[in-house]
Structures are given as C-alpha cells and as structure tokens.
Amino acid sequence: MPEEAKWYVVHTYSGYENKVADSILNAVENRQLHHLIREVKIPTEKVIEITKDNQKKEVERKLFPSYVLVKMILTDDSWYVVRNIRGVTGFVGPGSKPVPLTDAEVARFGVETREIEVNYAVGDSVMVDGGYLEGFIGVVDSIDMDKQTVCVTVSMMGKEVPVELELNQVKPL
C-alpha cells in the first residue's frame, strides 16, 4: 500500500513564503516529484482594513507569517528538495526531523476542507460523539454547513442547554 502524504510545516525567511511555495512547485515539476510532494499552501484569511481616509478595504493576510505548509510523503529525496529551496530555514520539528500536522491541526488551520456527510436533521435526536459532552443525548436545533457546526440542546443537571459542536461530533440515534 502506498504511503499516505502528510502535511508538514516549513519555516521560511520573513516575506519569502510565496517565493518558497513557487520554488517548491517548480522543483516538483522539474524533477517529476508529483508522487512525493502533492500540495503547497500558505494559509490566509480575508480581513477588512480601514485605510487612513476611513475607506474599508478587503485584504488577504497570512495566518502564519514565515511558514509554508507542504503535503508530501517524507523521504530523503522530498526532504532534500524542500530543505534546499532558497529561503527555507528548515522544517518544524525537533532537530532536523520534520513532524507532520495531526488531523485535528489540519482541520483547525483550514488547510484541507473535507466534506462531512450529515445524516441527521433539525429536530432529530443525536448523541454527542466527541469533546467534553461525549455520551450526552440532545436534539438538533440548527445546522450551519458553512461553519461546519451544529447547535444541539442537551439536558445538563435538569436544565436545557444549547451547545455548538462540530458536525462530526454528533451522530444520529
């Protein structure tokens, strides 16, 4: 079975994120390493800035300045290619050993969007299947597919309490 590619964090010189990302993609193309290095991302967010003359302007800001995320299968070749790109100072991890991001970190950073299939609806009874309320039973109040959350009312200590959970933290009864 082929090894699964994982996301690694690469540290760069400040302001070199785009140049490093482009250089990695060029190296993958030139050396035919598509099977090892799959994706390169620079996580960004859109924010509204107010200019000096009180105008609103939407700008894209890097979530993690000086860092680039690379989805790859870690081998000596892939490590060498990325590590020797101009502007790269190293991988994030102890010593020279890169440590991949966990699935939870990948989800939290919004690096990959996975479509979650929802097999429950508003008004359905569900069981909380993760987090500190695991095992609690509640009723679905609302589902927000954009935010990937569900609002569930659970009974705690005799009170009905609405809680917001991730879509994959509840399952139908």
**CATH homologous superfamily descriptor of the largest domain:** NusG, N-terminal domain
Looking at how many chains there are and whether they match, the oligomeric state comes to single chain
Rg result? 21 Å
Structural class: alpha+beta
Can you list the strand order of the major beta sheet?
10-9-8-7-11
Distance, first to last CA: 35 Å
How many separate domains? Answer: 2
Percent range of helical residues: 10-25%
Extended strand count = 11
Which fold name corresponds to the CATH topology of the largest domain?
Answer: Alpha-Beta Plaits
What portion of residues belong to β-strands?
A: 35-45%
- Going by CATH, the architecture of the largest domain would be 2-Layer Sandwich
Task: Name the poorly predicted regions.
Answer: none
Q: So what's the CATH class of the largest domain?
A: Alpha Beta
> Total helix count?
3
Please state the overall shape, judged from the principal axes of the Cα atoms.
extended
Average the pLDDT over all residues and give the rounded result. Answer: 87
Describe this protein's structure.
This protein is of the alpha+beta class and 173 residues long. It is 17% helix and 39% strand. A hairpin with an 8-residue loop joins strand 7 and strand 8 (137-144). The protein is extended, with a radius of gyration of 21 Å.
